[in-house]
Recover the amino acids of this structure.
C-alpha cells in the first residue's frame, strides 16, 4: 500500500498576466554603487557574490557612484546617448516600414539598447561579436551606414546578401559583426571557437558571444561554458536577460530557480550580474571583461538584466501574454532616459538639446530609409536577381546546381 | 587511379596510416590546419589516426576536446570564421547527431547567408559503417543526412591511396566536407567474408601511397574494374564487397567507386550505365530515403532508355543496426551476387 501523496509537476508562471497589475517584486534592485570592483586577475571564486548581486552605477537620480564608475569623458557619454537614441529611432522607423509592407519581419531592441551600444564602445577594432538578433546597436554604435542596414532589411537590389537572408540578419565582418543565424544559441559556441582561434594564432583579438535568457536552455550554452572554461580563450559571454522569450517568461528557462550569471560558477568562470539598463554599468563591466580577455585571463560570463519593452518581433502581440503596461513597472527604468538624466545632472545636456538631437536623428533615419526605398523594397521595385538564390552555396558552383539554375531559367 | 604521381616515393600504408599521413602533410604545409576531437590529442585517437601529431605540432594544433560533438563542430565553425582550417574528428559517425545543427544549419549555410564574408572551411573526419560488431552505436552509415544538405560536400574513400588524396583535397577545399572513413577498411580491404582470415592492405595495390603531397579531386568517381554487362554503384566498404561478388558470380560487372557522394560524378555513372544497360546500387545504410534512392533517380533520369532491367538496390535493412545479427544485416557478397544474377535475368 502506497501512502505517499501523488506527485505533481511544477510549471512556472510569471508574476503577472494580461489584466493583472505588473509585479516585479521578485527582482531585488540593490542601491547603485554598492558592488565592489575586483582586480581583473582576481580568482573567480573570490567574486562569487557578483553573480547574485547587481552592478549598478547610476542611481535613481542619475548620479554615477561607486567603484564601477568608468573613466570616460563627456564626449563619450554624449556619443553613448546618441547611438542608443539612434538605435531606437531606427527601430521605430523599421517597425513602421514592416507595417507598410516594405519588409516581411522586424525585431526592435527597445528597452535594451544599452547592452549592445555600450559594449561595442568598449570593444576594439578587430574584435568579433557573435550577436543573436537583437543587437543592432553593435552596428549603429560604430556609425555603420544605416542605408546599408535598410537595404538588407528591404531585400532590395542593393542588399549585400543578395536577398538570401531574412531581414536584419546582417553580416559585417569589417565591423566585427558575425553573420546572424537565427538558429538560437549556435553563435554562442562559435564565439568561443573564434576566440580559441585568436589564442591558437597568438593574436590579440577578443570575441563576444550573445545569447538570450530563453536560449540559455539550448545545449550550445552549456557547451560554450565547457569549452570556455576548458581552454580559457578570450571571450565575453553575454546573457541578455530581457525577461521574455516570445511569450515565455525567463522562469521557463529555469530563471526562477537560479539567475543566469550564477551558472558560470560551476565552471569557475568569473560571472557578473549587471543592471543592463545602466549605460555606465554596461560599459564598465564590459571593459573589465574585455581587459581580462585581452590579458589572456580567459572568459567572463555576464548577465545583463534588462527588459524587452517591445514585442518579440513584428509577428507577435505581447498584450496576449503579459500586461500591456508591464514596461512602465520595470524597476530598472529605460536606458536612454537614465543616461539622459545623468547628462543633464552633469550639466552637459538639457531637454532642448535632447529634443533637437531626436529631431536630427529622426531626419537622418528617414533620409536613409528614403534612400533605401529608391533601391527597392521587398518584392517591389528593384529586387535582387533571382539567380542570386544559387550563389554562395559553395565557393564554386557545382555542376548539379548549374543545371538547376538553368532549369529555373535564370 | 589516373591521378597517381609517379615521381614521388611510394610506401605501403594501411588506411589509418594513409589518413594520418594526410593530416601530417597538411599540418606541415599550413599552420592554419588544426586537428581536435575526443581522445585525438595525447592518445592519438581511438583508431590512432592522429597518433604523434600533438607531439610533432604542439598542443595548440592538435588537442583533446570535451565530449560535446555540438561544441566540437561549433568551435570549428568559429575557428573557420576566424581564418583557420579545422579538421575536427567525431569519434564515431553514430555520435554526430548532437552536432547536426552546427553542421547543417551553420557550417553548411555560413557562406550563403554572409555572401561569402564568413566561411567554415572544415573537414569533419568520422568513422562510418559496420562490420565490427559495433551494434546500434558504432555501425551506422549516416551519409544521406549530409548529402541532403545544401552547402556540404560528402566524401567516402575505399582505400589508402584515395583516403590520403581525398583527405588532403578535402582539407584544402574551402567548403565544409564530411569525410566518412569506413572503419572496417582501416586495416584491410574487407570483402564481406567475415568468416575468412583478414586480408591486410599490404596485399592490395591501392596501399601504395606516395609520400608527401598529392590530391585525389573531389567529385570524381573511380572505375575500380571495367566490365560490360552491369554497372555496380558503390562506395566505402561496399566497393570491395561488390568487387568480390562480381568475381564470385563471374558476371562482367563494372564497379564504380563513387568516392565523393556530393558533388556526384554523374558523368561517369551515365557513361557506364549507358554502356552496360544494367545497374545495381549497393550501400550499408538503411534502404528507405538512403543515398541509393538518389542514385537510382539519377540513373533513371540520365539512362532510362538504355536500361534493359530494373535497377536493384542492395542495402542494410530498414532497422536499427543490430548486434548479434551483424552479418544478416550487413549486405555481403551473397546478397550482392544474387542481385547481379537477378539483374542479368539468370
Amino acid at each position: 500500500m502506497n501512502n505517499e501523496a501523488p506527485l505533481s509537476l511544477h510549471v512556472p508562471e510569471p508574476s503577472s498576466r494580461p489584466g493583472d497589475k505588473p509585479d516585479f517584486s521578485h527582482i531585488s534592485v540593490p542601491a547603485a554603487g554598492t558592488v565592489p570592483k575586483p582586480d581583473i586577475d582576481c580568482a573567480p571564486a573570490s567574486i562569487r557574490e557578483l553573480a547574485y548581486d547587481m552592478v549598478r552605477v547610476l542611481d535613481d537620480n542619475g548620479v554615477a557612484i561607486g567603484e564601477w564608475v568608468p573613466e570616460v569623458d563627456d564626449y563619450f557619454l554624449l556619443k553613448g546617448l546618441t547611438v542608443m537614441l539612434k538605435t531606437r529611432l531606427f527601430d521605430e522607423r523599421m517597425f513602421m516600414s514592416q507595417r507598410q509592407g516594405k519588409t516581411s519581419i522586424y525585431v526592435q531592441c527597445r528597452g535594451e539598447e544599452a547592452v549592445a551600444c555600450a559594449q561595442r564602445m568598449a570593444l576594439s577594432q578587430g574584435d568579433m561579436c557573435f550577436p543573436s538578433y537583437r543587437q543592432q546597436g553593435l552596428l549603429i554604435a560604430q556609425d555603420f551606414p544605416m542605408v546599408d542596414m535598410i537595404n538588407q532589411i528591404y531585400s532590395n537590389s542593393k542588399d549585400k546578401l543578395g536577398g538570401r537572408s531574412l531581414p536584419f540578419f546582417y553580416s559585417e565582418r569589417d565591423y566585427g559583426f558575425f553573420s546572424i543565424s537565427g538558429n538560437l544559441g549556435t553563435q554562442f559556441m562559435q564565439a568561443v571557437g573564434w576566440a580559441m582561434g585568436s589564442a591558437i594564432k597568438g593574436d590579440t583579438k577578443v570575441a563576444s558571444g550573445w545569447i538570450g535568457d530563453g536560449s540559455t536552455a539550448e545545449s550550445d550554452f552549456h557547451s560554450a561554458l565547457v569549452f570556455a572554461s576548458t581552454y580559457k580563450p578570450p571571450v565575453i559571454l553575454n546573457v541578455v536577460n530581457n525577461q521574455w522569450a516570445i511569450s515565455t517568461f525567463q522562469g521557463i528557462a529555469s530563471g526562477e530557480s537560479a539567475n543566469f550569471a550564477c551558472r558560470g560558477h560551476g565552471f569557475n568562470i568569473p560571472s557578473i550580474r549587471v543592471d543592463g539598463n545602466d549605460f555606465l554599468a554596461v560599459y564598465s563591466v564590459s571593459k573589465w571583461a574585455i581587459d581580462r580577455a585581452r590579458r589572456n585571463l580567459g572568459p567572463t560570463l555576464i548577465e545583463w538584466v534588462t527588459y524587452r519593452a517591445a514585442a518579440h518581433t513584428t509577428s507577435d502581440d505581447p498584450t496576449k501574454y503579459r500586461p500591456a503596461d508591464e514596461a512602465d513597472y520595470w524597476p530598472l527604468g529605460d536606458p536612454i532616459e537614465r543616461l539622459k538624466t545623468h547628462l543633464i545632472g552633469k550639466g552637459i545636456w538639457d531637454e532642448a538639446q535632447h529634443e533637437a538631437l531626436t529631431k536630427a536623428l529622426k531626419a537622418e533615419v528617414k533620409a536613409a530609409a528614403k534612400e533605401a526605398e529608391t533601391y527597392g523594397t521587398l518584392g517591389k521595385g528593384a529586387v535582387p536577381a533571382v539567380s542570386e538564390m544559387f550563389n554562395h552555396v559553395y565557393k564554386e558552383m557545382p555542376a548539379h546546381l548549374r543545371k538547376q539554375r538553368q532549369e529555373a531559367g535564370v | 587511379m589516373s591521378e597517381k604521381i609517379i615521381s614521388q616515393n611510394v610506401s605501403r600504408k594501411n588506411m589509418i596510416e594513409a589518413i594520418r599521413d594526410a593530416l601530417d602533410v597538411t599540418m606541415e604545409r599550413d599552420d592554419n590546419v588544426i586537428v581536435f576531437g575526443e581522445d585525438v590529442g595525447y592518445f592519438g585517437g581511438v583508431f590512432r589516426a592522429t597518433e604523434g601529431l600533438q607531439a610533432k605540432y604542439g598542443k595548440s594544433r592538435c588537442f583533446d576536446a570535451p565530449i560535446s560533438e555540438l561544441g566540437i563542430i561549433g568551435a570549428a565553425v568559429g575557428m573557420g570564421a576566424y581564418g583557420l582550417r579545422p579538421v575536427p574528428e567525431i569519434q564515431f559517425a553514430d555520435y554526430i547527431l548532437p552536432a547536426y545543427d552546427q553542421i547543417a544549419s551553420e557550417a553548411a549555410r555560413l557562406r550563403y547567408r554572409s555572401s561569402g564574408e564568413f566561411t567554415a572551411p572544415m573537414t569533419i573526419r568520422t568513422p562510418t559503417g559496420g562490420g565490427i560488431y559495433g551494434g546500434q552505436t558504432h555501425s551506422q552509415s549516416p551519409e544521406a543526412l549530409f548529402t541532403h544538405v545544401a552547402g556540404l560536400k560528402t566524401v567516402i574513400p575505399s582505400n589508402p591511396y584515395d583516403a590520403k588524396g581525398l583527405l588532403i583535397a578535402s582539407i584544402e577545399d574551402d567548403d565544409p566536407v564530411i569525410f566518412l572513413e569506413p572503419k572496417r577498411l582501416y586495416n584491410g580491404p574487407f570483402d564481406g567474408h567475415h568468416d575468412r582470415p583478414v586480408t591486410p592492405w599490404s596485399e592490395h595495390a591501392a596501399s601504395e601511397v606516395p609520400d608527401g603531397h598529392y590530391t585525389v579531386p573531389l567529385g570524381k568517381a573511380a572505375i575500380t574494374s571495367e566490365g560490360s554487362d552491369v554497372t555496380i554503384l558503390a562506395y566505402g566498404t561496399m566497393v570491395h564487397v561488390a568487387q568480390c561478388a562480381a568475381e564470385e558470380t563471374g558476371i562482367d560487372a563494372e564497379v564504380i567507386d563513387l568516392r565523393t557522394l556530393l558533388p556526384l560524378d554523374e558523368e561517369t555513372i551515365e557513361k557506364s550505365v549507358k554502356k552496360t544497360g544494367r545497374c545495381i546500387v549497393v550501400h550499408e545504410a538503411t534502404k528507405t530515403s538512403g543515398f541509393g534512392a538518389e542514385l537510382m533517380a539519377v540513373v533513371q533520369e540520365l539512362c532510362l532508355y538504355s536500361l534493359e532491367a530494373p535497377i536493384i538496390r542492395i542495402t542494410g535493412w530498414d532497422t536499427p543496426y543490430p548486434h548479434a545479427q551483424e552479418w544478416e544485416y550487413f549486405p555481403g557478397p551473397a546478397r550482392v551476387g544474387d542481385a547481379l544474377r537477378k539483374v542479368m535475368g539468370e
Chain B is about 35% helix and 20% strand. Chain B has a mean pLDDT of 97.
